Amino acid sequence: MSRPKTIERLLHIREIEEEQKRLQLDAALANLESLERTRDAAAEMGRQGRTLVGESVISGVIADRQAGLMETEIARRCARLLALRIASAQKEVIERRRDFIDKRIERRQAETLMEQDETREKLESGRRSQRSVDDWYGARTHRRGGDDQGQG
């Protein structure tokens, strides 16, 4: 009886570990998505800066031109920094996904062990039941055979 409890505990531990790995993967994915949204916002800022520069050429307002150039430059710097962070976040997502899949495999292996143990237990139970029926039938037949000999 201690064996199934051990396998049940192992399965429970594997389920918890898998859930932790899934949460870590979700966090890494959320971080990556956040960085990508920030990159998109920086790209939009760059577009707005270029638009402002173009409009200032027509209107002749130097302050708008300078503001547009600053927005464009800031957006370019942000994009460079974000590209490095995004690459790092992508590597982390790949690593977390691999860890999650490894834990899922381990959990499934524990489930398989438990299923095999349950199947083995059912077979043993069936064999014990059959043996009990066989013993009962054998004893009954033996008693009848003994009764027949005593009367004859």
Compact summary:
The protein is 97% helix and 0% strand.
- The backbone outline, from C-alpha atoms, is rod-shaped
Q: Catalogue the unreliable spans.
A: none
CATH class: Mainly Alpha
- Helical fraction equals over 70%
Which second-level CATH architecture applies?
Answer: Orthogonal Bundle
Q: What is the mean pLDDT? A: 89
> Beta-strand level of the residues, as a percent range?
under 5%
Number of helices: 2
SSE string, helices as H and strands as E: HH
CATH topology: Helix Hairpins
Distance between the termini: 50 Å
Q: What about the largest sheet?
A: none
Q: Given the helix and strand composition, which structural class is it?
A: mainly alpha
Compute the number of strand runs: 0
Instruction: Report the radius of gyration as a whole number of Å.
Output: 36 Å
Total domains = 1
